Each structure stands twice: as structure tokens, then as C-alpha cells.
Here is the input.
Amino acid sequence: MANELGYRTARDLFLACPAIARDMKSPAAAQPPLEFCRALLAGRVPEEAVTFCAYLLPERAAVWWGHECLSNLAELLAEGDLELLALVNDWVGEPGNPRHRAALSSVVDPSPATPAAWIALSAAWRDPAFDMLSTGFPAAHAVNAGILAALARVSTADRFDVLSAFVEMGIQMVEIEAQRPSVDAY
Here is the structure.
């Protein structure tokens, strides 16, 4: 595989997206991105591997990854969160569809309080009505917050296993996205 989505090293991602340094404390390394991600997972703060994946993935893929992570924890989510995930699913399938965009915009709260609300906000991030771009954070910030909020609901005994599965899913998505002829942005 060529370098992951155009980044030869983790440091390249940090340089391209400085907001990541506000969401994680680990310094950027000159390692290839997926090697760095796996090192984060094995490190002192494995949650930073989630953060790194959220920023490494293209926005639409990151939103989908967040959706899939939360879908795997559906039993820990409220009915409202499940409804938000259904809207996110529709949006990911057709991000340009005005009906999906309007449905998300009508229910998204710019001050999310639940895991799925964060993922829904990440899908609606570019909607001018929310003015999220002015925060200086990319949608990856919301994806990261949603996944980490969901992980906080997992029992302590199971948390690392779930976190590891989510990171491996993110790594697989990075590998798939890197093989695409062009990364589709929305």
C-alpha cells in the first residue's frame, strides 16, 4: 500500500491537521501512520489510537467508522441515539442528498450530550447553520468524542478489548480508503 491517505508519517498528519494536537497529548512521531496508531494502542493512553484514527480517516469514512463503532454498542445506547445513528447511516449512504442533510440538521444539537449526538454532529459538521468550521476543529473531533463517550459506557473489564476492536476497524478502514483511486470528500 502506498502511504496511508497521503501521509508518510504520523508527523505529516499532525502538520496537515494541527487540531489533532489539541485532542491528544502524544507527540507526533516519524513512524508510518498505522505503525504509530498501533503503538498508541499499546501505549500508556490507548484511547489516543481512537483519536488518531478519527483524524487519519477522510471525514465521511470517519463518520461511518463512528457509526459502526456505536452500532456495536447499541445495547448501551438510548432510543434517541439509535434514531440518530439511523439518520447518520442514511447520510453516509448519500451525503449530498438534501433530504438526509435536512433530516440531520433538524435534529442535531450543536452541544451534543450523547455518543450518537456527537456522531450526528460530525455528519452535519459542514452545515453552515451550525458554524462548526469556525471552531478550528475538524469533524474528526466530534467522531473522536462520540466514540470515546460510547467507550466510557463499556464495563471496565471489557473496555480495552472493545477499544482495540474499534481501533482495528479504523485501521482496516484506513487501508481500504488508501486503496481508493481518490478519497471522496463531501
Summary: The mean pLDDT is 90.
